[in-house]
Amino acid sequence: MTMITSDPTITLLNDVKPYKTSWKVEVKVLHSWTQHSSYSGGDSLQFILADKTGVKIHCTCKRVFFARVKKLQLGQWRFIENFSLTAAAGKYRPTSHKYKMSILSNSNVTNSTLKDEDNFLSLTSFTEIMNGSLDSNFLIDVIGQPIDIGDIQIVHVQGKETKKLEFTLTDTEDHQIACCLWGQFADHMLYAYKVAQVNKNFLCLLRFAKINVYKGQVQIINAFDSSTIEINPLGFDVQDYLQ
């Protein structure tokens, strides 16, 4: 059933379809990053957007249209009008939406007066991650207390030196899952560990992270720059995770 919004010209993300481009949506920017490319089109901007019902969609913008998305700022609500939709696919899907949004030459981004501080978390339980019931092509949100934090390792990936950090996340029921962070995410985690209080207890929220299987072991990794990491996020108490 289609949910009616207060403005009849605005469509909820669940209801947008590829048959036209003249949609108008009201969305919050949850995350954005630059995707580097050596192809002729050059770099692109990527966004994860959510509407007021919490439905999320991945949005992409080619370099030639960067000026169109200057107003798409992290944490802010905006109207986006005129965009195309194509089937979402791939092994790193940051949302479960069946379509991906693309900015066009006539796309228009304007300010919204909507105020909603919700970050629209969709936390995944450790049990779901470990029992193999999830489609690993979809990125997930997961939170836990990091333990057994190792040292930064330097490994060669596709001819480049890359930082790698392995550790374990525990949840409130003492379930544990292996994690491996790469690049700047490894640095961020190690810094948080070093500046934590003497007892080293802190929480780590990984958003849009990837379920991976390495040497037969299920683990969580960052999905390049699609992922985000937050230490001691608001609304969670590390004491709930201590056994």
TrEMBL record:
Pfam families listed in its UniProt record: DUF223
Replication protein A 70 kDa DNA-binding subunit B/D first OB fold domain span: 11-111
Gene3D superfamilies associated with the record: Nucleic acid-binding proteins
SUPFAM superfamilies: Nucleic acid-binding proteins
Taxonomy, superkingdom: Eukaryota
PANTHER family per UniProt: OS03G0429900 PROTEIN
The protein's name: Replication protein A 70 kDa DNA-binding subunit B/D first OB fold domain-containing protein
Organism of provenance: Brassica oleracea var. oleracea
